[in-house]
Design brief:
225 residues, alpha/beta, Alpha/beta knot, Trp Operon Repressor, Chain A, 2 domains, five-stranded parallel β-sheet, two-stranded antiparallel sheet, 9 strands, binds adenine
Length: 225
Amino acid sequence: MRIDIISVVPDLLKSPFEASILKRSIDKGIVEVHLHNLRDYATDNYKSIDDYQFGGGAGMVMMVGPIDRCLTDLKSQRNYDEVIYMTPDGKTLNQGIANELSLKGNIIILCGHYKGVDQRVRDHFITREISIGDYVLSGGELGAAVLCDAVIRLIPGVLGNETSALTDSFQDNLLAPPVYTRPAKYNDWEVPEVLLSGNFPKIEAWREEQAYERTKKLRPDLLDD
Ligand code: ADE
């Protein structure tokens, strides 16, 4: 998979890809991530990418011109499956969207800033608008990092143990069951006996029941879906 991220502060996006699973996925050649500075597509001496909004009002709007030039440049080199815009008024990211995007080949992620982008960008270039939650960030960069992490870890070969992404919370609309590791007894806190039993059908049944009970208690809304 190739991910091109367009931003006015691309440096914000460097560190998430320089450690742990995301770095490994890049080192293994499973994912390519390319950061693009939108200011490189400005045409004036000030490298302007935003301007005042028509009709008045506080806050600058990202102009269509630099975004058009950047997208046209990228699209002239390869086909893209999606051009995603990170924005608080997009569809809230969930595991289903992450699963879907993990199957794509090439995607572009455009990070919004200020008051957002000129509506014509959304109307003519964007295929999908994604929010990472009902709160407003300073820009789309941290949202883009969250999206990339959620998507990349699902690509086959990224996680050492292929099944571990399948048993994540949300994959079946249930939260994950509790997990334990050694020691089996710490102070007087004991690990549930069934997990030490070696009886795998019984362990599986226990995990399913725990996942259901935990979801009912913490996120009953997931059971409604
Ligand atoms: N940009 C600003 N706020 C955002 C959010 N909640 N999700 C995605 N992009 C954003």
